[in-house]
Recover the amino acids of this structure.
């Protein structure tokens, strides 16, 4: 799949959050830590990614902030809970990048624009987008990865629709297990 991917190399992985790591609230937002639920297998997947990749990032559009449905401090509480559970499961996230802008704002930092990827590159200069994988469950996630020059993997999840141009997996753990056995 990724011919030059090697375990424990200088590769990075960028993960979308809603629908990939945690259950997506269809038509809504995860606004409070109590509403955050991991997708089955995602904690184990992140643990495996922590062994396989030099850097593990989350890149997430959080337009609920721009809409006034939640605050940045509420988002930080959600991420704090998520990171604690990831660490308790033996995984790590090197940095979370989020964009609270509305989709209608111009300019904005939302995917499919690459502002979050460029921020990761600035914070972690060793990031090489040609040795990076973007994992997401929407077309904008795939466009983000493509726009940054990354490899892309599409997670079908519960609500996914096929994106024939990208390798597809039913879940994050399915993808992690595939990488781990290669």
């Amino acid at each position: 799949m990724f011919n030059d991917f090697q375990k424990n190399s200088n590769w990075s992985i960028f993960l979308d959050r809603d629908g990939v790591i945690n259950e997506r609230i269809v038509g809504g937002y995860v606004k409070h830590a109590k509403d955050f639920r991991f997708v089955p297998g995602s904690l184990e997947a992140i643990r495996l990614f922590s062994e396989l990749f030099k850097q593990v990032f989350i890149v997430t559009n959080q337009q609920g902030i721009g809409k006034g449905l939640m605050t940045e401090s509420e988002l930080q509480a959600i991420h704090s809970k998520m990171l604690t559970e990831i660490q308790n499961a033996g995984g790590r996230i090197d940095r979370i990048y989020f964009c609270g802008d509305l989709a209608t704002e111009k300019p904005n930092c939302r995917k499919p624009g690459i502002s979050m990827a460029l921020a990761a590159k600035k914070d972690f200069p060793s990031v090489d987008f040609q040795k990076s994988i973007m994992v997401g469950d929407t077309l904008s996630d795939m466009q983000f990865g493509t726009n940054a020059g990354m490899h892309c993997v599409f997670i079908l999840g519960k609500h996914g629709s096929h994106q024939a141009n990208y390798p597809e997996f039913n879940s994050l753990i399915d993808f992690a297990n595939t990488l781990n056995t290669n």
